[in-house]
Amino acid sequence: MAFDNIEEPIYEESYDGCFYAASRFAFICLMLLLAGTSFGQGVKRWSVKTCQDNAPLTLRPVNTTIREQCLLPRPAGKWLTLPRQKNEDTLYRIQGMITDIGTEQDGDIHAVLSNGRISMVVEIPNPTLMPFGDSHANLYTAERNAIDSVFHGKEKGRIKAVKPVPVTLEGYGFFDENGHLSKGHATNFREIHPAVWMKF
Asked: Residue ranges per domain, the chain?
């Protein structure tokens, strides 16, 4: 019969090729997912530090100082799974000097806020990673524009020392991971994260 001359291995090779390509694509996607902090949003308490956890937050700022924030005790429990803590729902107003600035792997702007003796970190999330229609995205964008107008692009790339610039800012308190290696952290790893308003 005419069908006797059809070489079945041609189809098998084609199937194997498609299977290999699909497997390779799935592997690449898995690697990108596992490397989330390098290619997209972070995963460590990300919903808390970007106000995506739907927790009730205060809206009237409370005046504080870098020293007060650095003296707050760290919460007990496994950090990675901690829900928002009571002093992480408070909108703080704080003053200091930005002495170092840069962008972390997850796209957040990382600024070191100092009073001349001690420092803490302030971060502004990447607005492009916020869900569509998120009410905070416009605040983050406005802050980034303000920072760019002052630091003229120095906030991009690695974290680096800059000429100190005075700032008044508002944002929510946050406890970062203990032992985090980014520059300028408080000894208790307390941050303002996210910052939602700045005035230079």
From this structure: 2-39, 46-199
Instruction: Answer for the pair 84, 153: CB distance below 8 angstroms, yes or no.
Output: no
In angstroms, what CA-CA distances link 59 with 35, 92, 138, 164? 34, 9, 17, 29
Fold of the 46-199 domain: OB fold (Dihydrolipoamide Acetyltransferase, E2P) (2.40.50)
CB environment 78-92: b (16+ within 10 A), e (fewer) = ebeeeebbebbbbbb
Q: What is the mean pLDDT of residues 74-94?
A: 91
User: Is residue 99 a contact partner of residue 161, using CB atoms and an 8 Å limit?
Assistant: yes
pLDDT digits (tens, 9 = 90+) for 159-195: 999 999 999 999 999 999 887 767 899 999 999 999 9
Distance CA 67, CA 98 (A): 15
Q: Would you give the DSSP letter of residue 189?
A: -
User: Would you say residue 11 has pLDDT above 60?
Assistant: no
Q: Can you tell me the distance from the alpha carbon of 75 to that of 106, in angstroms, rounded to the nearest whole number?
A: 24
Select from 102, 95, 107 the least CA-distant residue to 147: 102
Give me the half-sphere count of Cα atoms (radius 13 Å) on the Cβ side of residue 22.
6
